[in-house]
Amino acid sequence: MERKSSSEVRKMFLDFFKSKGHIVEPSAPLVPHDDPTLLWINSGVATMKKYFDGSVVPDVPRLTSSQKSIRTNDIENVGHTARHHTLFEMLGNFSVGDYFKEEAITWAWELLTSPDWFAMDPEKLFITVYPKDTDAKHYWESVGVSADHIIPVEDNFWDIGEGPSGPDSEIFYDRGESFNNLAEDDPENYPGGENERYLEIWNIVFSQFNHKPDGSYEPLPHKNIDTGMGLERVVSIFQNAPTNFETDLFLPLIHETEKFSGKKYNDDKEQDVAFKVIADHARAITFAIGDGALPSNEGRGYVIRRLIRRAVMYGQKLGIKESFLFKLVPVVGKIMQSYYPEVLEQSDYIAEVVSSEESRFNETLNDGVQLLDQIIKKNKENNEKEISGSDAFKLFDTYGFPLDLTTEYAHDEGLEVDKKGFETEMQQQKQRARAARGNQTSMGVQSGLLTGIQTPSRYVGYTELTADHAVLKNIIQNDQLVTDAKKGEAQLIFDVTPFYAEMGGQVADKGTITDEDGNVVAEVEDVQHAPNGQNLHTVKVLEPLQTEQAYSLSVDRHFHSKVEKNHTGTHLLDQALRDVFGEHTKQAGSLVEPDYLRFDFTHFGQVTQEDLQKVESIVNQKIFAEIPVKTVETDIESAKKLGAIALFSEKYGKKVRVVSVGDYSVEFCGGDHVKNTNELGLFKIVSESGVGAGVRRIEAVTSAEAYEYLLSHDELLTQTAKQVKAVQVKDTPQKVAQLQETVKTLTQKVTNLENKMAKQEAAGIFDNVQQAGQYSVVASVVKVTGMSQLRDLADDWKQRKVSDVLILGAAVGEKANLLVAVSDAKVKAGLKAGDLIKAIAKEINGGGGGRPNLAQAGGSKPAGLEQALANGITWLTEK
């Protein structure tokens, strides 16, 4: 078996299954598209769910992929074991109702052992099977696997609860006695046991049953094959690496970290853990950010933040004090360039995000260390030998301290950590996270009703908004296929239709269905794609309908025209955003309605009003330039040569539509558009906001809605002009500025008068000096209008040097204010205004603080002011 690079192994796997009639599915983004059950894409089969549950029928039932995936459920094991990772690639081949056990097993053995492919020694391969799966055992034997290399294991049954399930076969590679970490008679010392010698490299699932809610199993209408081979594991065999980390997927990152730290990998076991964690996490955060996720305090953003913080903490353990993680981003890009060129292309942007987060964490890190010091001090003062699980989890959850790091700090101080309590807190958090994601099942059961409908249906709406002789081919009513539709709701499929099915953010068309006499027999309320691609019309049936009858289908032209304008508007907006913010800006979602358009885009940072004006100006310039909008249908490669922008979240067939707005905007798009930008008339942004970590949202209007928006604002401006008595509307800003200056002058006069009155009101308070223990004190409740006047009185008191301490209170409406000032001499002697304000603020239901010489507090209980002052005198007396 020859040494192979990770790129060679990946390519060989995909090429092999391509030679067996499989279509190579590109690796989907880590952020799931339209799947609320997943936080991340966490396996190869996760992207195939739509095929296995029947919601989409693939063009070809044989598929293969190398899918990047993220799992963080056992993040604490990363670096401590040979093969735990947060980001990994899963090689897989899939059959959707096509081939089954015999072919899957035959091809697996051929790939593994053929001299033309992996060329592994058959003697080093062991197979586990489900004991009752005699078919699998038979097929393994028929390809040449000896009986003593086939091991029955009761756990070899893949089952996630309700939904598809079935037996599986796991394939193990014998790495040899030198890797054996168990005694000869250890019960786990066998292929399939928990040991280091026999490495699992492939799992082949024979999905043939439906696990029903009542616990029973029934055969699936279509049997499927789902396999998973961990790229990192297989590469470690080809490169004879002790662990996955000594392969070309990780070593460049480890070597770069050596340069930052001045330390060497393989010099110290504990030190090696830090190198491994940093290398692993650098990969995960680079890919996650590249796929559109950004650090935040919840969901995916929290995972990224946690990984960054964990890597930085381990960098500290290696002695790296400055920001370094962002420098590993281009290293990840170079390692993965052959299959994921987009990572290197985005490396500057990704590095910027990581660098910003690192800088923020360095500030948080100091707070975390201080908290840990306080916890350790508290434990020692109370003679407690163990840091509580809740404290350890707070350090982990709020400041990013890994449990093992907290444990290490604690051990240095002679303390233990309540790890069970920590795990309890962790499990509660996971339960909260699962509850937040809902309880939807992760894999549905194939729908025999819609998947079985193979009727061809042609969409003509790009050029025609009516179809006069559309034959009704299928009717679904009350979840059954029928030949006659009664009044009520029904779903219809025609052989031809002008109705657009909702896709790519564009809403579905609406309209009517008429019979040959011109009578309206149904109203089209929604259109979606059926599993086999037909346009499925949801209608309100007004008169009975029959299959194989011809009807006239008419799209609401006004509705459709407004949608077209807004869809072209999103394309212009998309490119304008790139012009203003840079190429890292990507579409993160869109909605094209007849009355407005909504466009979500990735952007790390705020969007200013000036930025929006630039974007809006660019779009309107393109509208006024009267640019032709053209659509061509071509193959994907030709479309890319045209410079067409594709969305990673969308799946494209062999033929794609490319919409070009002159040479300004070129995009893959299956939607409807105007013929010329001048049809939009006008474009106006009506709002911009943040909708998530690193995702901004713009809502805009075009045409009549844009005119109405501007008209409403013009009316507001006219009304304002009248109110400020501007002679002409154009004079309004100047008139408003004059009024603001007048208000400012009057406000200053009022403030001066209030201050004068306050001084007059409080003129006698400095004459009333009393003694409280060793301190001379002025304490009084005064009538002022706010805290600023209390501070003015304190300034006056300080200049006069009236007493050692000043305590003032004031009731302002339903609020209470307190102020304490201490002379410089008494501050030097150790008296602090902040200590005194905290002691008395509770009487007004408030809290406060400040500098040693001046502190203030606010509260909601004015009636408590007198008692607060009395408590102040008592506190000073006892001091």
TrEMBL record:
One example of a Gene Ontology biological process annotation: alanyl-tRNA aminoacylation
InterPro entries: aa-tRNA-synth_II/BPL/LPL, Ala-tRNA-lgiase_IIc, Ala-tRNA-ligase_IIc_anticod-bd, Ala-tRNA-synth_IIc_core, Ala-tRNA-synth_IIc_N, Ala-tRNA_ligase, Ala_tRNA_ligase_euk/bac, DHHA1_dom
UniProt domain Alanyl-transfer RNA synthetases family profile: residue ranges: 4-712
Manner of cofactor binding, per the entry note: Binds 1 zinc ion per subunit.
Protein family per UniProt: Belongs to the class-II aminoacyl-tRNA synthetase family.
Function noted in UniProt: Catalyzes the attachment of alanine to tRNA(Ala) in a two-step reaction: alanine is first activated by ATP to form Ala-AMP and then transferred to the acceptor end of tRNA(Ala). Also edits incorrectly charged Ser-tRNA(Ala) and Gly-tRNA(Ala) via its editing domain.
Protein name: Alanine--tRNA ligase
Naturally occurring in which organism (per UniProt): Pediococcus damnosus
Name of encoding gene: alaS
